[in-house]
Amino acid sequence: MKNFIEDLKWRGMIQDIMPGTEELLSKEQCTAYVGIDPTADSLHIGHLVSVMMLKHFQDAGHRPISLIGGATGMIGDPSMKSQERNLLDEATLRHNQECIKAQLSKFIDFESDAPNAAILVNNYDWMKDWRFLDFTREIGKLITVNYMMAKDSVKKRLSGEGREGMSFTEFTYQLLQGYDFTYLYEHYGCKLQMGGSDQWGNITTGTELIRRKLGGEAYGLTWPLMTKSDGGKFGKTEKGNIWLSPEYTTPYAFYQFWLNVSDEDAARYIKIFTTLSREEIEAAVAEHAKAPHLRELQKLLAREITVMVHGQEEYGKAVDASQILFGKSTSETLRSLDERTFLSVFDGVPQYSLSKDVLPQNVIDLLAVTTDVFPSKGECRKMIQGGGLSLNKDRCDSADRTVGAEDLIDGKYILAQKGKKNYYILKFE
Length: 429
Hints:
Helix content: 40-55%
Largest sheet: 6 strands, mixed
Number of helices: 20
Distance between the termini: 60 Å
Shape: elongated
């Protein structure tokens, strides 16, 4: 078996680790779990470290459990948050669970009969039948309030980080997560919990509860929270999260996110978010250093992770779409894009909304009268004569050209390009 801990160390994926964890993993096939918050019906790239941990764990021959926090998702984890989050109903949580499992299946094996096939569980299934009095008597008595108050996630909220303090609901979160670990230890032989560094307090509560309730020994490890080299929040853009679902983030936009990371971040992310070997990564980093302007490391990172999440075909489309803005594509490539990718590629480009009734129309009238792509007919004519105007990536060679319904991309768009970099979208409805 691959040495899981050694692999994580060089990838920079270990923050805290309990003594004895490495020895445990080296002597037997182990079961470990990672909790995933089901607050949406798609994972975003902020979840990807936890997903890759499960993948590396399974690749090392061990058995991963992905725990969907259906019960704890109804409460909200206070760790590193300044306010309570919205609570979800059961129907929404179940829908989210199914969507998340489908995404996880691209990374880890749930379906085979291998002894280390992954397991998906939802803590709502064992929490829903507990009565409050029974839980407080059987579980609550095992962990003291003093112990719970000493956790950083609690102390920070009570010391004024967040105006509203902490509700009793949130205060119980670490006890519920601790019980999850205890339940999985008892029913699945799960001896290890993994999580982000903000989960260390919750993880250690679980190991303590296992010791006190079952007399067992359990372990924990955490990874560093993801950041960008400039200090900004990882995975966030002006438009919000980068999602794994193509419904929320197109494969093109997903690919572009990784393509545009800094050199420093690319060297770090390629260790964390791919399964490339140490030798492959070190060779790629060295090669990139010879000609950083070619961004070969970013291209490799973007390829590996886009293929993993969206598949080879969508990766190919994303690469083709990326060429459009750099003048290396054809009208055929442009027309092959689906509408969402087309709009994603030209996000932020000036748009004009027009009626299809204006077609057919002379190109100069369309671009200088019906719209103001050009300030005057004369300037438009001059651009055409100089070979600087393209419609749908085809050069417009004649001022007499007529634009008709047959020119529309996807039945509604025309892409006008003025010079090398100025694009305009005409949308006909």
